[in-house]
Amino acid sequence: MSGWDEVRGQQLAHSPELYRLTCTLLREGAGGQEEWLSLSVSGRPEDVDAGLLTAVSWDPSSRWAALPHGVPGLLFEGKPTGFRIVLLPPCAAPDRRMLVTLETSRSRGEDDQLLRAAVAAANSASVMTGCDGAPVPLPEQPIRRHPEGTPAALLAPQSACAAIIPHLPQDAPDGGWRIHEAAPDSGPFGVCAAPFGISGDALVVSASYGSWAETRNAIRPWMAAPDGESRGQAAPLSEYWLPSTERTVASAFTYCDGEFAYFQAGVARLGPDVFTQEELRAIVVAFATDQAARRGCEPPVLPPAQG
Question: Is pLDDT above 60 for 234?
Fold first, then answer.
């Protein structure tokens, strides 16, 4: 890959029995500062779930971008995590999955090179780990970055984030609501973020698909089930938990081809509330309903209306 031809150090580890492959490169950057690039491939279900949990950990400074059409994944960028591309390419066996994560401390100006490297690595690793899925096509279009977000009024009608626009508060931030969109119609995760305030506060509306989503949102085992009885965490989440609306978060869930899917609208803010509970509920209801329809899922289980 251009720019990483000469490295000061590299580490490679391949564990076929664990369906795991890792590679780390080090180079000297501008001003003599060390820069790193790390690629990891996981094929065990528990490792895939853990990797996804790590990949989508949200921080108010995080920014997301959808990858070009045909590339199954997302781009994440944030102060604590650097730059991260996450791919979830298909495997030949329907019960197999493979997670490819490329991270680096430096990315600006190298987005598309890094993405092509991640895709090439995913295709090679698919053979090495026995995933043997159809090759991920090399992207034909560049990554679309919108650092300042897209004005809500200019968001494409077919966008998955368009569903939340009618339910945003009329009292918009200076300059109006702007949406950071990374919600593809496929893949394990999608997000729509609407910043407000001056300290990195944001409304984050997300969708998580697959067994890792159930793990990510597992409720405490002493949480009461819908019938008032306690359930162990070994039971399906839907048996001991119902969606709800709290002060800063509203949730919903459904099943897509038998796999769990979780939807959440939440804010992280100290001080006066910007979103009412009714607004958060309306946002997650609209988003979950739209996502379920897009992906052919069961009708979502929604939080009850505020009494």
Answer: no
Task: State the pairing for strand pair 73-78/178-182.
Answer: unpaired
Q: How far apart are CA 54 and CA 216, in angstroms?
A: 10
Q: Under 8 Å CB-to-CB from 18, ≥6 apart: which residues? A: 43, 44, 47
Range of the domain at 124: 1-145
Looking at the structure, tell me whether residues 180 and 209 fall in a common domain: yes
For residues 71 and 211, membership in a common domain is answered with no
Give yes or no for a contact between 63 and 78, defined as CB atoms under 8 angstroms apart. yes
Biggest alpha carbon–alpha carbon distance for the chain: 64
In whole angstroms, give the CA distance from residue 4 to residue 218: 40
Residues 69, 190, single domain; the answer is: no
Last residue of a domain, one of 95, 126, 145: 145
Q: Tell me, what's the pLDDT at 58? A: 54
Amino acid at 23: C
Which residue in this structure is represented by tokens 């052919």? 296
Q: What is the pLDDT of residues 60-118, one digit of tens each?
A: 556 677 788 778 888 877 655 578 888 988 888 888 889 998 888 765 567 888 889 89
